[in-house]
Amino acid sequence: MPQEKTGAFRVMLVDDDPTSLAMVAAILRNEGYEVSEFGDSARAAEAFEQGHFDVLIADYKMPGLDGLSLLRRARLVRPDSIRMMLTGVGDYEVARSAINLGEVYRFMTKPVDELELATNTRLACEHLALVREVEALRAAMRARDRLLQRLEMDNPGITRVTRRDDGVIVVDDIDGELPPAQRHATASSDLESP
Description:
This protein is 53% helix and 15% strand. By secondary structure, it is of the alpha/beta class. It folds into 2 domains: 3-134, Response regulator (Rossmann fold); 161-192, no CATH class.
């Protein structure tokens, strides 16, 4: 993803380990993301509820509100956000719970690999951009359908299209007859057909 596009995505990082937090933040800033860092998960939860973050990356083991609880809470507040978990614990149960309860997009172990982090974040943002594009297209289609319904109510028959067997759209004039140019085109195409 080009750097100018990554800056449009806001990433929240939550880790009680300041060294890990700074390292992950530096990697993502270097990739062009707008990054907000939190060392306290309770403060992060409040900020997530108040602000707009596209991606939430949280450590699993933190005092107070653990990473899984934070991700679960984030899913309830903003279901379209992408949630990822970092952990020093390579525990299958933690990963399963994170995926099933927090609907975690990716689960990464510490120390995080720079390429893995950058790639997973890029893929998460691409996924989010596609989801948003689909939603925007659906909204545009709903608006178009409402407009067509209104046009049909005001002008019955305006949205109906008549086609010939060969797929050509037939356009009638007010009297219901084809204009001379279309009559000629229709007549010549009828002569050409077997």
